[in-house]
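Complex 244.
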Amino acid sequence: MNKTALITGATRGIGKQIAITLAEKGYNIAVNYRTENEDLKIVEQEIRKKNVEFMAVKGDVSIFEDTEKFVKEVIEKFGKIDVLVNNAGITKDTLIMRMKKEDFENVINVNLTGTFNVTKNVIPYMMKERSGRIINISSVVGIAGNAGQTNYSASKAGIIGFTKSLAKEVASRNILVNAVAPGFIETAMTNVLKDNIKEEIAKTIPLKRMGSPTDVANVVKFLASEEASYITGQVINVDGGMLM
Ligand code: NAP
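Predicted structure with NAP bound:
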C-alpha cells in the first residue's frame, strides 16, 4: 500500500511543489486548498501524471471545524496519513506603528493556530499507527526576525517551539516532527516585491540567488524518507546561507 501525504495550502508555490515531489516518490496525495481556482486543477493534473491517487480537500486551516472535516475526509479515502506537511501560510507585512490588531491576529491564526488545528486532528491517527512524519514550514525570519514582520516572524518562531515540544511528546510513538525554515523563495508571496528589491536581497545571500520551491520540497522529501528516521525536533534552514 502506498504511503499518503497531506499538504496544506498546496495549490501554488512551495506547497504545490512539495505535493508534486512527494507524488514523484509514490505517495498518494491529499492537497488542502482554501480557494477553488485554476491553480487547483493544474496541481491535480500534475499529480495524476505521476500515477498516484489524488484528492483535494477544501478548508481554511485557521478554522478548527474545517480541519476536523478535511482530515476525516482524507482518512476515509486513504485510511491513514503517513506524512503531514503544514505549509499554508500568509503575510500581512507592515511596521508595528501601522499594524492593525486584525493583521496580527490573522497571521497568527493561519500560520500558527492553523498548524495546531491540522496537527491536532491528524495526530490521533499517527498515534494509532505508531508512525508518522510531521513537517512544519517555518521561516528564517522566525529565527532572525525582520522589520515589518512582527506578526509573521512571531508565527514562524511559534511554529519552531511547537515543533520541538511536539517532537518530544510523540517520539516514543515513532512520530518524527521537524521544521523547515526557507529563506527567500521565488513564489507569489515574494513576487509582491519589485525586481530591483529582489536583486538587492539576492546580493546579500551567500549563494547569490533566491531559492526555488524545489529547493524546499527536496528537503521535505528527505525529512519524510526512511533516510531521515533518526532526525526529530530539528529546524533545517533552506536559505542559500542567509543565516549561519
Ligand atoms: P503562496 O504562494 O502565497 O502560497 C500559500 C498557499 O497557502 C496558497 O495555496 C494559499 O491558498 C494557502 N493558504 C493561505 N491561507 C490559507 C488558509 N487559511 N487555509 C488553507 N490554505 C491557505 O506562499 P509560499 O511562498 O508558497 O509559502 C508557503 C509556505 O512557506 C508559507 O507557510 C510561507 O510562510 C512559507 N515561507 C515562504 C517563503 C518564501 O520566500 N516564499 C519563505 C519562508 C517561508 P489561497 O489561494 O487560498 O490563498
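The domain at 4-182+215-236 is CATH 3.40.50.720 (Rossmann fold).
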